[in-house]
Amino acid sequence: MMIGKRYWLLLGAAIIFMGAICKTSQRDQAMIKVISHKDDARLQTRVNDDDVIIEIFSENGIGRADFEFVSAQMPKRILMQFHLRGLEELRFAYGETVVSASIASTGEQGIRQSMSRAGERLVEALTANSPFWMKMRVASRDQIPLREGYIEVEAPEDFFASGVRQATIQWIDFYR
């Protein structure tokens, strides 16, 4: 009889403990609000461990979206996956900072990035060791123009250091 009471007591404590862990992990998870400004663009978001992944599908290849973190918790990384045929221009704007990036659609498909501040004419070319640099990779077996896969772009380290909680992204797959 005493073993039965202990069993139920331990089981009840375990259930309460697990409930507290689940509530804590839900509360600590980054929550994001995303708004597309183009009717043909579809955006999907998901949280994967400490990462927020934003998938961008854009039929005509040109678009703009805003996102904002509405929870206290910020992710460690923001990964944007552009399901486009190319990415000749991407602008990631937050606070007073605009980071521009492109992957050439011809030749060796090199990556170019630059940074500017609102109200300034100076445009600074970036290198991979800059806190404004956005890591980029083509996740496809194809070369650009892509038939399948996506181009993944990671938000710059400076976005997280800035304390800003919202950003705007603009993209163009190919100049016409």
What proportion strand?
35-45%
| Strand ordering within the main sheet | 1-4-12-6-7-8-9
Structural class based on helices, strands and sheet pairing: alpha+beta
Number of strands: 12
Rounded to the nearest angstrom, the distance between the terminal CA atoms is: 80 Å
Low-confidence stretches: 17-27
Structural domain count: 2
Q: Radius of gyration from the CA trace?
A: 21 Å
Number of helices: 2
Profile the largest sheet.
Answer: 7 strands, antiparallel
Task: Give the topology string: H per helix, E per strand.
Answer: HEEEEEEEEEEEHE
Helicity range: 10-25%
Average pLDDT number: 86
Shape, principal axes of CA atoms: globular
List the helices and strands and how they pair.
Layout: H1 2-28, E1 32-36, E2 41-48, E3 51-58, E4 62-69, E5 77-83, E6 89-94, E7 97-103, E8 111-117, E9 123-125, E10 136-139, E11 150-154, H2 157-162, E12 166-172
Parallel strand pairs: 3-5
Antiparallel strand pairs: 1-4, 2-3, 4-12, 5-11, 6-7, 6-12, 7-8, 8-9, 10-11
Structural features, described:
With 176 residues, this protein is of the alpha+beta class. The protein folds into 2 domains: 29 residues; 142 residues, no CATH class. Helix content is 19%, strand content 43%. The protein contains 2 helices and 12 strands, in the order αβββββββββββαβ. A 7-stranded antiparallel beta sheet has the order 1-4-12-6-7-8-9, with no helix packed on it. A 5-stranded mixed beta sheet has the order 2-3-5-11-10, with no helix packed on it. It starts with a helix and ends with a strand.
